[in-house]
Amino acid sequence: MADEDIISRINALVDEEHRLRSGSGTDRERLEALEIQLDQCWDLLRQRRAKREFGAPESEAHVHPAETVEKYLS
């Protein structure tokens, strides 16, 4: 998956999140799932950029499980 694909996915998730938050009766479970998916996408993008910066193959980057990305500190 290329960086552009990840960014497109992030944009789609953010758009859905905005639609859910602006509507009445927000779906709490879906919002939580979106937040996790966004964290995973951002993490993957950061991994790819770091690997590129330090000369490692971007293909070594992988999606971390929700349990991992949700424990990161802001």
From TrEMBL:
InterPro entries noted in UniProt: Uncharacterised_Rv0898c
Residues covered by region (Disordered): 54-74
Pfam (any one): DUF2630
Domain of life according to the entry: Bacteria
The protein's name in its UniProt record: DUF2630 domain-containing protein
